[in-house]
Write a structure and sequence with these properties.
With about 70 residues, this protein is mostly helical. The protein is built from 1 helix and no strands. It has a domain at about 35-65. It has one helix at about 55-65.
Length: about 70
């Protein structure tokens, strides 16, 4: 790709701060929700993408992902 056809990269950032429970001068603070469920990387991959591999090769691939 030619440099003239490349688009300008624009990154958006958000301010993040840490506040202790004992801090009262900030007023009411909204907290972003957190997800507590931990998902293994191997669970995120569609198993159909490994159909062409043998069982041994598939196990080796999953061990590398973990």
């Amino acid at each position: 790709m030619h440099a003239n056809r490349m688009r300008k990269l624009v990154l958006h950032s958000y301010n993040v701060g840490i506040v202790n429970d004992s801090d009262v001068e900030f007023g009411r603070i909204s907290v972003a929700p957190t997800e507590t469920k931990q998902v293994l990387p191997s669970e995120l991959i569609d198993k159909g993408t490994f159909d062409h591999l043998t069982v041994t090769e598939m196990n080796q691939s999953f061990r590398r992902i973990w």
